[in-house]
Every structure is written in structure tokens, then in C-alpha cells.
Specification:
It is a single chain. Helix 1 packs across helix 2. This protein is of the alpha/beta class. The mean pLDDT is about 95. About 25% of the residues lie in helices and about 30% in strands. It binds xanthosine-5'-monophosphate and magnesium ion. Xanthosine-5'-monophosphate binds next to strand 5, helix 3 and strand 8.
């Protein structure tokens, strides 16, 4: 019998388990619900890595809110940023006067979120805050902090729960450290 390729064998260690993800997203979702009560916020997800986090967070938030998505990319097919930011897809909503919460999978160098935040701020929203699943402070090259952080992680290349290597591993149910030999070969 053919065995499907086991993605888990490429993972060195699990950093954030499924249970930890669920519990912490519930917790931060509760905080967002309280902070934005009566404000009808618009959640803007940064594609594609945010998809599982966005879906989980959207269910954890218990207040009326709208969804939108944009797409930028800071690097392709590698583990190091190239320095090139490409704007691929804009949001659909007019955000003037609105309370915007940007959702992202990881805040690493900070360049992507700085670019996105400044782009949205130019459209005169009432407020813009950042909510990230992961924060990797050791990777920071620009000055930027998130307003809501689910997990602070050490300096390692991570995949799973939306995070990818060459667009793979996004479907892992946890966040794990990829074995270096996977991207060094
Ligand atoms: P910056 O450096 O702009 O990075 O804050 C944000 C984007 O880069 C990707 N990124 C990662 N993707 N594992 C990944 O799978 C990582 O450890 C990692 N660090 C950065 C990610 O797409 C994020 O949106
Ligand atoms: Mg991303």
C-alpha cells in the first residue's frame, strides 16, 4: 500500500500546539470583543498565511464586524526576506472613519505590517491596530509593534497553521519549527 508523504517528519519540534492555539485565540478574541464593543470594526486579513488564524479569530470575536483581505508579499520560496514588497490585492471596503484591525500570521522583520499599516492609515480610518498570531521580536529590522499578540516566538523559521515554506505546510494544524535540512538541500 502507498503511504502518503508525512509532513510531520519535516518538523523539528512543535512550538504551539493545537490546544494552545485554540485557547489563546479564544482569549484574544474575547479581548477584541470587549475593546471594540459598539465600534463595528473591520478586520483586514493579510493573505495567504492568515487564513486559518483569521477563521479561528473571526469565530472567537462575538461582536458585529466586517471582513476584508489584502495581499502583499515580502519574499517568495525562501526563508529570508528579499526586501521586495509587492502589493497584489487591495481591500474592497472604503475604510474612511472605520476602526480597522489588521490580522496577520507573523510579525517578523516588521516590513510587511509597516507597509500595510501605513497604506491603510493614508485612507483616513478612525483607527488602525495590528493583531498577530505570532511575534518574532528577534527578527525585527523596522520599528513596529503589534497591539495584540497571541504568541511570542524565538528566532526560528516556523511553518503550519497558515505559515508556509514554498507555499507548503500551511495545512499543518500546529505551528512548528521546520528542520533546516528541508530548506538547505
Ligand atoms: P516581515 O519580515 O515582513 O514578515 O515581518 C512577514 C511575512 O513574512 C513571512 N514570514 C514567515 N513565514 N515562517 C513563515 O512561514 C516564518 O518564520 C516567517 N517569518 C516571516 C510571512 O508570510 C509574513 O507574512
Ligand atoms: Mg503572510
Amino acid at each position: 500500500m502507498m503511504h502518503p508523504y508525512d509532513m510531520h517528519q519535516d518538523i523539528e519540534r512543535i512550538l504551539v500546539s493545537e490546544t494552545e492555539l485554540r485557547r489563546r485565540i479564544e482569549e484574544v478574541g474575547g479581548r477584541l470583543s470587549r475593546d471594540y464593543a459598539g465600534k463595528r470594526p473591520i478586520f483586514v486579513g493579510v493573505l495567504k498565511g492568515v487564513v486559518p488564524f483569521f477563521a479561528a479569530m473571526a469565530r472567537a470575536v462575538q461582536i458585529p464586524c466586517q471582513w476584508d483581505f489584502l495581499s502583499v508579499t515580502s519574499f517568495e520560496g525562501g526563508t529570508e526576506s528579499t526586501g521586495q514588497l509587492t502589493f497584489r490585492k487591495d481591500i474592497d471596503h472604503d475604510i474612511a472613519g472605520r476602526h480597522v484591525v489588521i490580522l496577520e500570521d507573523i510579525l517578523d522583520s516588521g516590513r510587511t505590517l509597516k507597509f500595510v499599516k501605513e497604506l491603510l492609515e493614508r485612507r483616513h480610518p478612525a483607527s488602525v491596530r495590528i493583531c498577530t498570531l505570532l511575534d518574532k521580536p528577534a527578527g525585527r529590522t523596522v520599528e513596529l509593534e503589534a497591539d495584540y499578540v497571541c504568541f511570542t516566538i524565538p528566532k526560528a523559521f516556523v511553518v503550519g497553521f497558515g505559515l508556509d515554506y514554498d507555499d507548503y505546510y500551511r495545512n499543518l494544524p500546529y505551528v512548528g519549527v521546520l528542520k533546516p535540512q528541508v530548506y538547505q538541500d
